Amino acid sequence: MGVQEVKIAANQKELNRFTRFLLKDIQAMEYMLENDWFEQAPIRIGAEQEVCLVDEHGKPAPKSMEILAALNHPSFTTELSRFNIEANLSPVEFTGDCFSRVQKELDDLMDLIHKTAHDLEARVILTGILPTIRKFDLDIENLTPIDRYYALLQAIERLRGKAAYELKIEGLDELNLKHDSALIEACNTSFQVHLQVTPQDFVSKYNIAQAISAPVLGVSSNSPMLFGKRLWNETRIALFQQSVDTRITNEHLRYTSPRVTFGNGWVKNSILDLYKEDIVRFKVLLTTDVKEDVLDSVKNNKTPQLQALSIHNSTVYRWNRPCYGISPNGKPHLRIENRILPSGPTTLDEVANSAFWVGLMNGFEEAYPDVTKVLEFDDVKANFIKTARTGLGSKHHWVHGKTVNDIELIQKELLPIARIGLEKAKVDEKDINKYLEIIEDRTETGMNGSRWILKSYSKLLKESTKEEATTAIVAGMAYNQKTKKPVHEWKLASIQDIADWHPTSLLVEEFMTTDIFTVSKDEIPEFSADMMDWRRIRYLPIENEQGELIGLITSRQLLRHFSTMYKNEKLDYSTIKDLMIKDPLTIAPEATIIEAIDVMNTQKIGCLPVVNNKKLVGIITESNFLSITSSLLKRLAAKKKKAIRKEEEAKQENNTEPEKDS
């Protein structure tokens, strides 16, 4: 969780002072490593659960502060945004029924937060990226109002300047947008797993963590959509890197590493390789008022906090992160934090992912004593990126130059290795079978969280709007998560999951058409007419070279123009500028659907261009409202049918009741 009291250095003197503390922390750790200070046993595992908060419509609910106040529980804490909360699980010894114990605590915490959120008219969802999240949910007003979060965003902005944050992610659909702050990172939610390791095992274990990242990610992916677009199978990977990227574009081919990083090579000597690389590669983002003289502490045989190192480490986002901590007995320990795993789909799935990863970490050396001698690091990194893009079923570059499908790799090689690793730690056979069978079943069915979302979305689009489809997916998640069945046993999301859906408080941005065709003011009318005919549309916005809306042309205007030409029997060399409606009525994306309907009815117009900061971002027409009306009628019919069925069932129950003796 890191240090809470952080700040941006006010001047170079403060920055230099913090840097000196950072270098002293490295010296102190070197001394502790050389003199065997670190805890050797027992080995523990731990986890952090991030959750999304949603309202009755399945949209982000910025209620974390109210829910945390009502919970008043030490295991729960804030996250970057007001619609996320984190739960920290107690460390448990890696042996016996450890995974059942993790799941028991996790389920208890989730039951508690579900109840508390429900009392405050919110729900809790476990997912890597919430399918219903909208760009305006990431306004700065939804930043959690705590100083360290403001400091983090300001520090990132200071390094990268005032330039907008650009997201460019391409999958089945393409996302290309700008945002004004790093709060866009709040779209990501994960289930972070910690494994304690000894100093002498750290190098080997860390390299193993890197080597197995791709297949572990592939089988556990749960984040294929963002802003209603189907992108990478695990879109979190691309989104996280781009959302906190402090780099600026260079004219020359100079390499600069992103702060969200997989790494650049195998670790060779110790955990210090990683810490030293991060200090030289990445500028200090945040500082604090360090009170401890760590060199005095180690001289007096007192375990140091290493505050400066902990803060810097918390602002470098390795997918496998090295961690330093102090155990309850006062001894220092080392951990590897797996940041690859997404939140959800269920707690059972999350613990299965954890057992698979921890088992591999503990058993891999039995098969490959030195992974760096049988695998190229570049292949490992390429596997990770490819799997994040394409998901389960990816081809991997594997040991000794082999190429293998990840499903085959998991089934034939990695699951047996994970079993060996868990048996080696004397994990209960019941736990081993329970959790590894879930991973095996996922590979056999080909169904993980991402596949469930994508298949549900494709099915729903055939019978509903995009907004309804994403809402139904979230409703399906909520229902299935209550059953606590693993995701490979879930039925696909159904439109019936949102029988009570209604658009009263929903916004234009959720229903507007974004795939819009435009023309310039200097185009000829014939081109606009053909465009309307080919695309079967009735309205064309007119943009200038800056992408700003300057007019609108309708099919009726063009019909009138060509009719006049025909009657006058002469050519007309007009351009769109001569015909267009100048300064047409517009609406903002954050306006409600009801407001849009009122404007169109009052003004007797058939469409409203949607404009944000003078830029055209969409259009809403009568056809959008027909879709909404159709959906509402279907919902009403479904509700009526449901009510009739309940009434008939009640009558049958009454008719079958035994008669009472008179």
TrEMBL record:
The UniProt entry, under SMART domains, shows: CBS
One Pfam family of this chain: CBS
**Domain CBS intervals:** 512-571, 580-635
GO function terms (MF aspect): ligase activity, forming carbon-nitrogen bonds
- Entries under Gene3D superfamilies matching the protein: 3.30.590.20, CBS-domain
Query: Which UniProt keywords are given for this protein, alphabetically ordered?
Result: CBS domain
SUPFAM superfamilies for the chain: CBS-domain pair, Glutamine synthetase/guanido kinase
The record's PANTHER family line, in alphabetical order, gives:
CONSERVED PROTEIN, GLUTAMATE--CYSTEINE LIGASE 2-RELATED
**Annotated protein name in UniProt:** CBS domain pair protein
Q: Which organism is it from?
A: Microscilla marina ATCC 23134
Highest lineage ranks of the organism?
A: Bacteria, Pseudomonadati, Bacteroidota, Cytophagia, Cytophagales
